[in-house]
Amino acid sequence: MKKIFAILLVIVCAVAINAQQSPGKDHSKLNITCKTCHTCDVPTKSEPCLVLCPRERMVTVYQKPEQTPELIVMDQISDRYGPVYFSHRIHAQMSNMGGGCEGCHHFNTSGPILKCSNCHESTRKRENVSVPDLKGAYHRQCMDCHREWSHDTGCNSCHQLKKDLKDVKKDNIQKKYAGKQHPVVLEPTKLVYETKSDKGKFVTFYHNDHTKQFGLSCISCHKQESCTKCHDVNRTDKNKNLKVVTKKTFEDQHKNCISCHSKTENCNKCHNDKIIEPFNHAKSTGWALNKYHINLSCTKCHGTKLPYKKVDNRCSGCHQNWNEENFKHSVTGLQLDENHSAFSCEDCHIDKNFAVKPSCNNCHDDYSFPKQKPGKMLKK
Amino acid sequence: MSGKSRRDFLKTSALIGAGVTGLSATAKAGPKNILSEDRMGVLVDTTACVGCRNCEWACKEAHNLPAGNLESYEDRKILETKRRPDHTALTVVNEYSSGKNSNLPVDVKVQCMHCDHPACVSACIVGAFSKHENGSVTWDTDMCIGCRYCMAACPFQIPAFEYDKALNPKIMKCDFCIERTKEGKVPACVSICPVEALTYGSRTDLVKIARDRIKRNPDRYVDHIFGEYEVGGTSWMYLSNKEFAELEFPKLGEKPAPGVSESIQHGIFAYFVPPVSLYALLGGIMWISKRRKELDEEIK
After folding, report:
1. Longest dimension (CA), chain B
2. Which of B43, B73, B103, B195 would best serve as a mutation to test chain A binding (most A beta carbons within 10 A)?
3. Which end of chain B has the lower number of beta carbons within 10 A, N or C?
């Protein structure tokens, strides 16, 4: 009896799986709202009330491009044309700023990477036509980007007619892509946006400050970038630096900035009548960064929470473990000579206020810093 | 036109002539409503279409029209001018500038929409057009007398005429690959489409699928399924990321198109009253003038 029950259970499951790829046993624990897939409040195995294949935000399996296969041969449906040799790894690198893995692998809730053919049937005449067949699914993945930069629909850029196949050898293709990487994307230093705003026509955006100083990763702004931003057959060196006119809405235009610069901030923080200088810690805060501090990311001192918190300009504000015993004065750029290194801090730094100029008056009548120095200045 | 069908036509005419009063009532009913619940249709997703024009080639191949080499269809220059289906190509793809949230041009395949209430069927005076249970609207070349009423009646201006043929010119239009579908195949254009921008399925399913796509991708589509309600519904339906008027789709109401052509035709011929009254009027005038003449002569 138990056996029959088990078989029945398997059949019921098989029917459910057949309709849509199973998301895995523990899928209810995933960070996905149930309504993404189920239309009813209490889905059961027999009545899963599934929506037609959910597409968005259904991926929990991610790999780094370097971990992915270099070349994938797609030959399940080749008829008129030969197989497609798909350089997966280099495409994975390219998609980093264009939607990532999810751009193509849109449904992979758990477990190993699913094959397209798990959900997309290979026949055009079929019962469930809510999702495209395999041929349609493959082409849809590729064609949108390929059309954007090539402006044509030539089949030959991905596969050759079977009659021309003798020139195509897998080994040669494998060699062609072996170890090939998408070149590092060169980042601009400064971008000037000419806007229509009456609060100041120019927005000067220091790209390198945002990535290096403020520690933003590429994909924190470039989430859905199109390949045509760099690659376009119509783009020549001549028109490379031409002004690009965008048709974005106000919200879209400000979307990337206001995730850090709060909406309530003054417009003039970014908008100005002229092109502005890059951020300078000394000018803006009155506290120049020395050779140690200049290498730190902002968040190291100011915390990750925005707006950045103000930091006490006394060393002990951050360096709480510094005391008279362990402090090496040379980190300040001045190595104390033998006589001076024996003193306590207060002897020169009155009231331990390190922000103001040290005083020599405790011992010397007519000495003053920095005219006279209690040691040797180190190279900055 | 073959002798047999001419005889058929004459027989039909004679019958109509003989039973004017009796039969004119049935003539007014227009094509019988044979719409089946699971009639087929095609959903054209113009946001998926890449404009490769393979469908044009496949259509010609399937209908024995000169098709040429498939590779020659990769030439995109032809998309710079807008074309209409004609007797050499029963379907054509036109390209328009990009719609919302996209850098890509919009490509639109044009062919017969296979209306649920087709005006051509209703307008055809010899009954050469017919609507089939599976949704397709076809015509019978042998019965056609070349009056071209169908061309005037069609709200999408689809039926084309072989003007260049002096002898036996034909009306040409997409037949929904009725020969192929009878054999259990999908239409030629649907079969070849590399991106399955053309989804062939039951019309009821397609409407559901189209609604679902709009609901789930509101950024990708305008909220309109062209053909769901236009002229009472069509078998071919379209999704787009641009207003359909901008893609040169005609602006049509939800009333079936035959209503218009039928009311004109039937208005003229209803119960043969207008012709009969015209003859009666003429006869009356003749009678009066004759009588007047007689009276005049009597007075003389």
Report:
1. 93
2. B195
3. C
Q: Does residue B25 have a pLDDT over 50?
A: no
- DSSP letters, A224-246, are B--GGGT--TT--STTTTS----
- Establish if A287 belongs to a structural domain: no
* Predicted confidence band of residue B9 (pLDDT cuts 50, 70, 90): low
Look at the block and give the residue holding tokens 């249709």. Answer: B41
β-pairing verdict for A107-108 and A190-194: unpaired
- Same-domain pairing of A196 and A168: no
Torsion, Cα A35 A12 B213 B131, to 10 degrees, reads: -140
Residue B14 has pLDDT above 50, yes or no: no
Same domain, A213 and A326: no
Q: Which of A153, A154, A228 has its CB closest to that of B103?
A: A228
Nearest CA in chain B to A51: B212
How far, CA to CA in Å, does B161 sit from each of A224, B88, B138, B148, B173? 49, 10, 15, 8, 9
Question: Is any Cβ of chain B less than 8 angstroms from the Cβ of A153?
Answer: yes
Please tell me whether residue B247 adopts helix, strand or coil conformation: helix
Which residues of chain B lie closer than 8 angstroms to A152, CB-CB? 74, 76
Selection from B257, B266, B26 nearest residue B119 by Cα: B257
Instruction: Answer with the one of A32, A51, A70 that is the final residue of a domain.
Output: A51
Cα separation of A177 and A87, whole Å?
A: 7
- Which pairing describes strands A375-377 and B137-139: parallel, antiparallel, or unpaired? unpaired
Residues 6+ apart with CB under 8 A from B78: B53
Please give the residue of chain B at the shortest CA–CA distance from A37: B216
**Residues spanned by the domain of A5:** 1-51
Whether B8 shows a pLDDT value over 80: the answer reads: no
Q: What is the predicted pLDDT for the residue at B26? A: 38
In a domain, A291, yes or no: no
Residue A181 structure tokens: 């990487």
Q: Decide which of 1.10.443.10, 3.30.565.10, 3.90.1150.10, 3.30.70.20 is the CATH code for B31-256.
A: 3.30.70.20
pLDDT lower than 50: segments of chain A: 8-19
The reply to whether A148 falls in a domain is: yes
Instruction: Encode pLDDT of A4-61 as tens digits.
Output: 555 544 444 444 444 455 666 777 777 777 777 788 888 888 888 877 665 555 777 8
Calculate the alpha carbon distances from B127 to A19, B27, B215 in Å.
Answer: 45, 11, 42
**Closest C-alpha among A220, A218, A240 to residue A229:** A240
- Separation CA B66–CA B43 (nearest Å): 27
In terms of domains, do A74 and A168 share one?
yes
